[in-house]
Amino acid sequence: QKEVEQNSGPLSVPEGAIASLNCTYSDRVSQSFFWYRQYSGKSPELIMSIYSNGDKEDGRFTAQLNKASQYVSLLIRDSQPSDSATYLCAAQDSSYKLIFGSGTRLLVRP
Amino acid sequence: DGGITQSPKYLFRKEGQNVTLSCEQNLNHDAMYWYRQDPGQGLRLIYYSQIVNDFQKGDIAEGYSVSREKKESFPLTVTSAQKNPTAFYLCASRGQGIYEQYFGPGTRLTVT
Fold it and tell me: What pLDDT does B84 receive?
């Protein structure tokens, strides 16, 4: 069964620090990976997508992909209290369906 | 204003009743998806549709039904056969040739 694993947290970091969120996946066929941010009671919001090995940067966010290790990560630089949310990692299978992890809860302390 | 709308935001039903959740998009996306989210868990795929008049079961389709008569609409019916229907239901869509899925605001269904 295809799986995406995330540490449920909470991951607690001080304001201004780098938050590092990690995700592993089991399906070697997966080529596309996504990070969604979900505030409590709200729907997921896409913040990053990554398709190739290496790093992809967008503002304070950097996604990292290592297909050999089946590992995806999200770095959030200069973390703000408004970044406090649950971060969902998703892998896309060959039918374009998304397989989601259970999410990591991030708390940024003022 | 382009986007995905879901209605209603909150829905309450008695056990044994069927209920239909609405999902509409004006993004001209071909593919649409229904997910269910339970507290503290990730999203699980219920049904998806890649084109009009065609849809496939996801991982947890039992007790649910869908239709796709129009490109912009993908309603989900939660039937009385669904054993634990109380959950947060999320609709998403994806454009042709695009990998990303975008979500609507969700419907929180409570069945008592």
Answer: 92
